[in-house]
Amino acid sequence: MKARIITHMNTQHTRELSHYLRHYAGLSARAAAASPAIQDMDLSKMTIATRGGGTYDVPFSPPLSSWAEARPRVIAMDAAAREALGISDVYLTEYAFPRGFDWVPFVGVCFYYVCAAGLPWVVPGSAAWDVLGHVFPGGPEWFRWVVKTIFGIVLAIHLVEVYLLDKWRLQKYGVARFSGLWWAWASNIFVEGITTWKRLDRIIAEKRAQKEEKKH
């Protein structure tokens, strides 16, 4: 039974092992996510190793009276760890592209970034200067002033949104910081803004509904 438990935990529950290491052993999220695996266990503790070569004892408190107690105990320990770490029991595992109205702010902000990047070429005598003189209210001088003036504001707002999405959503729903999935969502909100929150929350709501259905 011990061997089956170790094999099952190491193949199906590495996420939970990282929770144990963070909460009970005090590791950082990055260190705890480095391929955690149970090296050994007895009725009093689990010994969990990580890719970096470290080994950490996570005690059963109180000790198990038999291996039959292992399953409910590790589930309870994970629930306690997640509560302490502020991690949900629903995990975000995929990225979703903008859809419908989401494309409006996405395209709008992309257009602004293109305008900001193109300012060095908006100079007297250039084709852009001539076009803006005909189509932009106030002409090219006003265009340059507006784009330059709001650049810091736009950049600051979107960087704050990246920070808050990471803190309030991505970490809570189990997305490892700086993973591919993390970069997908962080890059998206940096461009798209507030509609990213709504789309992500819809995904989480759907996952939670599915989880509740399985319970019944």
How does this model look, in words?
- This protein has helices spanning 2-12, 14-24, 29-32, 70-85, 103-117, 127-135, 139-170, 180-192, 194-215, and strands at 37-41, 45-49, 55-59.
- It has 216 residues and is mostly helical.
- The protein has a three-stranded antiparallel β-sheet with strand order 1-2-3.
- The mean pLDDT is 95.
- The protein starts with a helix and ends with a helix.
- The chain is 62% helix and 7% strand.
Shape annotation: elongated
Distance between the termini: 29 Å
Runs in which pLDDT lies below 50 for 5 or more consecutive residues are none
Residue-averaged pLDDT: 95
Q: Give Rg in angstroms.
A: 25 Å
Domain module count = 2
Beta-strand level of the residues, as a percent range?
A: 5-15%
Q: Major β-sheet, in short?
A: 3 strands, antiparallel
Helix content estimate: 55-70%
- For the secondary structure, the number of strands is 3
**For this entry, what is the oligomeric state of its chains?**
single chain
Q: How many alpha or pi helices?
A: 9
Q: Report the order of strands and helices.
A: HHHEEEHHHHHH
Spatial sequence of strands, sheet with the most strands? 1-2-3
- Structural class of the helix and strand makeup? mainly alpha
Provide key terms for this protein.
mainly alpha; 3-stranded antiparallel sheet; 62% helix; single chain; 9 helices; Split barrel-like; 216 residues
